[in-house]
Design brief:
10 helices, binds zinc ion, Aminopeptidase, alpha/beta, six-stranded mixed β-sheet
Length: 342
């Protein structure tokens, strides 16, 4: 995923340099709302004026609500994060990519029982033809209300936020950027298998989100899915990306809040009821991610993402930067939304 501005992290200077460089190449077609709100791809130094404050402090708001269904097993979810990283890089065309794809299919078949590969190819202009697979599975296909939950499972081939040039061409481990969202969805699938929600749940794991290096070669699985949906159009979609940071805290993503504020409301209401301090009030940055192709296909789609992650697109994006507690925070909130949906 990519964003319009960035103001934290150890790679700030490097990032801003790259941001300006990329700004010219930023795919405007993927920025349906970027130019109207005074925050354009070139506005790296503008302040958004966003006020950040917690929804509630843990002491002020002890959790009063509970999460339906069996407990989210944070230890198991974290083991799934580690397992993905242990497969190695999940760049299309690599051995780690193929092994991870097969394992995801197997894991989702243990719960949903109907997991499928959605294979497609993409010719990189001036580069290789990539073979990729979205992995899809669903619960309660017959239910009237359908919710799509998604994350990307591939990893970036280039650690382009590294300062040292000799590291920039290496693939990232992708513990947070890739594995975290998938780990939460695999564990949620176990919950849904153990206790069926009232609504239908469509799980889609996107390939090719992070190929890059620029936006025209990114979000490839989501773009393919938007044009070739495996399932009927859902009532809304929730994307999980970079939600494993052990210092998790984030605001509503700006494009999500422009297109589907009511879905953000559902999520933040659930977070508040659970006393989850990771969900901050206010609207944050504009981040182009897999939710944009879904939005462009007419699906209400939000992105839950914590972009304040110093190891972003570096070789330091490893499991020790993530935590089981963060996976559980997201898993519990999303589960509450799903189980309480009619
Ligand atoms: Zn990324």
């Amino acid at each position: 995923m990519r964003e319009v501005r960035h103001n934290v992290g150890m790679h700030r200077a490097n990032f801003l340099f790259r941001l300006r460089r990329h700004a010219v190449m930023f795919p405007l077609a993927l920025l349906p709302f970027a130019l109207g709100g005074g925050c354009s791809p070139g506005s790296a130094d503008n302040s958004t004026g966003v006020v950040t404050s917690p929804v509630a402090s843990p002491s002020a708001s002890a959790p009063t609500a509970s999460v339906p269904g069996p407990a989210f097993n944070a230890t198991r979810a974290f083991a799934d994060l580690e397992k993905q990283v242990a497969f190695g890089t999940r760049v299309p065309g690599t051995e780690g990519h193929a092994k991870t794809r097969d394992w995801l299919l197997e894991e989702l078949n243990k719960t949903a029982g109907n997991a499928k590969r959605q294979d497609f190819t993409y010719k990189v202009p001036g580069g290789p033809t990539l073979s990729m697979s979205n992995i899809v599975a669903r619960f309660n296909p017959e239910a009237k209300t359908q919710i799509l939950l998604c994350a990307h499972w591939d990893t970036r081939p280039t650690a382009d936020q590294e300062i040292e040039p000799d590291k920039q061409n290496k693939p990232i481990p992708g513990a947070n950027d890739g594995a975290s969202g998938v780990a939460v969805l695999l564990e949620l699938a176990r919950k849904f298998a153990a206790q069926k929600p009232n609504v239908g749940v469509q799980i889609v794991l996107f390939d090719g989100e992070d190929y890059g290096p620029t936006g025209d070669n990114m979000y490839l699985g989501a773009k393919h899915y938007a044009k070739n949906p495996a399932f009927p159009k859902p009532d809304y979609a929730i994307l999980l990306d970079m939600i494993g940071d052990r210092e998790l805290s984030f605001q509503r993503e700006a494009y999500s809040d422009m297109q589907a504020p009511e879905i953000n409301d559902k999520v933040w209401d659930a977070a508040e009821a659970l006393g989850r301090k990771e969900f901050l009030s206010g609207v944050g940055r504009q981040i182009t991610d897999d939710h944009i192709p879904l939005q462009e296909a007419g699906i209400k789609a939000i992105d839950l993402i914590d972009f304040d992650y110093a190891p972003w697109h570096t070789l330091d994006d490893t499991p020790d930067k993530c935590s089981p507690a963060s996976l559980k925070a997201i898993g519990d909130v999303v589960a509450k939304v799903v189980y309480e949906e009619k």
